[in-house]
Amino acid sequence: GYRVSLQGNFFGRNHTYITFAEYNPRKHIKLDPPLNIQSNVTASKCQIWWSVPWYLVEILQYELQYKEYSMSWEIALNKTPPSSLPQIEIEATELRSGIAYIARVRCKVSENEDSYHSQWSEWSQTTVFQRPGVPKLSEKILNTRTMQFLFIPLSFGTLLYLFWNCKLSSRWQKASPALTFPRQLLSFSHSIICTMGILR
């Protein structure tokens, strides 16, 4: 332990001020920030891990801070790992797809530790990660599929229309042979025009 005092000369007289009557350094530790922070993103979660000296692993606690890359740290989200292991997971549902995120971590001696006490370390270096975006179909594929869905009913309608016209034409032929050729020609021409209009 130590006794910390401050001495000074004020108005020609020496004064001594006791700052800490009993100063114990192990109760006032400030740790170095964690090192080598890294991240890996899958479809279901983002894993983040970092390094600390091996002899401190069991007595430290951590705080992770993450945010969208373009946002300010003042509105960042905080997470506390459930154990003393130097790692944490973020569920994919907490991240927006296609958006870049940035994270950092700091550490201090666990509140459950009796032998040492510390304040939070400085923040570590950062790691950047991004949840994969949901692949979108291109407009070309969408247009192709739309045409495929429309082609079947349009084709069926066209065939039904032609069949109906042919049936009517055969009736007209039986009823009036003299008007058969002009009516068939008009019916066929009308069918072609309607079909071309549908296909457009």
From TrEMBL:
<dbReference type="GO" id="GO:0009897">
    <property type="term" value="C:external side of plasma membrane"/>
</dbReference>
<keyword id="KW-0675">Receptor</keyword>
<dbReference type="InterPro" id="IPR013783">
    <property type="entry name" value="Ig-like_fold"/>
</dbReference>
<dbReference type="InterPro" id="IPR003961">
    <property type="entry name" value="FN3_dom"/>
</dbReference>
<feature type="transmembrane region" description="Helical">
    <location>
        <begin position="146"/>
        <end position="164"/>
    </location>
</feature>
<feature type="domain" description="Fibronectin type-III">
    <location>
        <begin position="33"/>
        <end position="132"/>
    </location>
</feature>
<dbReference type="GO" id="GO:0016064">
    <property type="term" value="P:immunoglobulin mediated immune response"/>
</dbReference>
<keyword id="KW-0325">Glycoprotein</keyword>
<dbReference type="InterPro" id="IPR036116">
    <property type="entry name" value="FN3_sf"/>
</dbReference>
<keyword id="KW-0472">Membrane</keyword>
<keyword id="KW-0812">Transmembrane</keyword>
<protein>
    <submittedName>
        <fullName>Interleukin-9 receptor</fullName>
    </submittedName>
</protein>
<dbReference type="GO" id="GO:0004896">
    <property type="term" value="F:cytokine receptor activity"/>
</dbReference>
<dbReference type="InterPro" id="IPR003531">
    <property type="entry name" value="Hempt_rcpt_S_F1_CS"/>
</dbReference>
<keyword id="KW-1133">Transmembrane helix</keyword>
<keyword id="KW-0732">Signal</keyword>
